[in-house]
Predict the structure of Transglutaminase domain-containing protein.
Amino acid sequence: MSGKEAASRAPRRRTTTTRGLTLWALGYLLVGVSLATAAAWPVYESPRAVIVGVVGGVAGIALGLLVRLLRWGPLLGGLAAVGAYLVLAVPLAVPAGMSSAAAFLSALRDAVLGVVVGWKQLLTLAPPLGEYQAVLVPLLVVSLFGAFLATLLALHPGRRASGAVAVITLMCAFGIAFGVSAPSTVLRVGAFALPAPRELAVGIALFAASLAWLIGRSRMQRAAALRAVAVHSIARRGAPVWPAVRRRMLAAVLIVAAVAAGVLVTPAAATWSDRSVLRDGIEPMIVVREQPSPLSSYRSWFSGDSLDATVVQVDGDPGGIDRIRLVALDAYDGQDFHVSGDTRFSRLPRTATAGPGRAELRITIGDAYRGIWLPSPGTLVAAPRFSGARGDALADGFHIGDDGDTAITIASAPGGGRGLVPGDGYTVLAEVPQGDAEDLAAARSGQSTLDPEAYPELTEWAQLQEQPRTGAGYLELIDRLRSRGYLSHALLQNDAAAGWIAALEAQEAYSFAASYAGHSAARIEELFSSLREQEAKVGSDASPQMLVSAVGDDEQFATAAALLARHWGFESRVVIGARLPAAEEVPGIAQCTEVCTGASMSAWVEVRPSGGEWVAVDVTPQFALLPSTITEGEQLPEHPTIPEQPRSEALDPPQAQNDSRSDAAPLEQTASPLLSQVLPVLRWVGIGALVLLLLALPLITVLIAKRARRRARRTVDDPELRLVGAWEELADLYVDNGVTMLGAGTRVQSAQSTRRPAAVALARIVDEGVFAPHPPAEADATTAWQLVDRERADLDGSVGRRQRLRARLRMRSFLDRIRPHHASALSLRRLALDTLTVAGARRQEEDA
């Protein structure tokens, strides 16, 4: 073959080799996308997830191939990838958005936000996720952008191509990291059991595919290099056949041994420790948000066997601690009380010492309780000391809210769920609460934080009571609320309610009255509506028994009291727990000494005036006086008697048990026509003023910074530093006004370059003060700053108003001082004064 023929075939061979490498890489990428989709299947278990993974991966591969062929740069390639994502996101990951234009825009917004927040959403929902909302967005991000990046790397001609293996591995790890903690079901083949077969199959397939691609790619490149040598007629010595065969056999043996070892070791390794995924390390607040409101299930303590079952057992001397808190609920959304989303849970130190005002108690969880909320007395001063087989896990999962009164443990519980289970025990060290009712009674109320339009019945009833807006007035409202209420824990008088009814009958001649559960705004408004209407019928001066009309228990009355506190301008929260012997006895809810049962569980409010401590206020209604039914216009007896309370039969509930008040008449809204016209104008004027202020804020910042710098230089205590500060101020003044001053040489030389007498005079005064054998006097510093002031006035008088404003706002004096040649002086004091000199520093050392 002639040289010309060899030269003509060389480009053809290079093209063939490049095409072969490209096809080999594309095959590996398709396998990687398939494995990543298979690994993510347990997270979703939906056919849509397969479509998203495969289509997104193929689109990423095609886009990467296009970017390579057209030789686009990183910026253009990245923009193309983002554009492809925006095009594919809605039809692939959020298909519900294709129903209408408005739904499409909403889905597109969710797809964009899902790039950032979608990962957290994956951890807050229990798998399988299916197609719920935008949960498929993270999978599309992984498949599209992962395949795009892997393609760019795999098609690279150099060593960078091996980075595609790392990208494909991370894509496969997505499904495992965001999946469930439990591995796939054990695969049994006869007597052989293989745990986690799906994870093992994905790992082996990924390993084999990556190894095959790397070896094949290397051989293709080597073959191409050998052909290039042959084209140029360069003689090469033939290699023996046996070494090549031996290398292949050795590689095959190593692969088989690695796979066999993985299959054999996996069963043993699976039992070494529990599998951990990202879902297991989620933020405590996410677990808290998943919990239903504890107040919503308050009545379950009084139902059936829970009434006499043990909730917690308390051992030790509680001292002045009067209550065991389960949880403090400080946020209300109109439906239920819950822990505020702004609450942050953190850990406590493990060690603390007992002392005055502290009590150490041993708490054991009983059969009637399990959950994440940690029963605790008072405010914990140290992390509990958990005991038992689950002690370490409970300690690792322990967190406490930033208010210090709500503690949780998010450790996994046997049988599913999280938190404490019956039999768990721990020792706590807590402080005795400081606030009491006297402190609250003497407090002044603040501005109401309750919307009167959302709670018109509550607002009107509170106004009818004519109480002062003080703590004493609020406590009087609570007394009236409790005395005019009637205790009932159920809607029906059945076997489930027999226990608590018998307990109340043992204390008083109790008659059952039905009451709905729930503490929504509608339910609380209904409670206050009954109180207001009853008072309107019988008059505010009627006897106490004639004013009883609201039926419920701690769930409703605690919510009502908390909302009244907010209407009165106090902070409030609802607390669920049990009262200890040190607490004031409340009829209807039993105190507990060593064993707290369901009958001891109560809910109360804690109120805090501005700058004060939380004060517990009991809200359990009375049950000695039955509600009175008064017809509108009925003439009340002049001397009413209290009849013997008869036994009443259970009333059948009405058809609808919803506590909403949809039939209530809408409130009349009256507004002044002039005010309705002026308010929009004022709003737009305010918005415009705010925009102008934001635009002017950088300029205002420059003026304030220059003024602060000048003040710092002028007010420093050392006269020598004030002298040099005056020189620095003059130099900055010249820079901002465009006066040229050479930076090299002495101060006098720099001043002479400006051709301004004031600069020369100031330079001489500063040099004399700095380099003289004695420190400068106060008069020298005063003279120096007077020169600066006169020079500033002369410069301002020589230019127009616009030039003066430009000089005031120019930032050149700041920028010149942060250039690289000033980097060594970037300390806070140097930036503020910029006046320390070697001579001055030495003189201060000599004086010291």
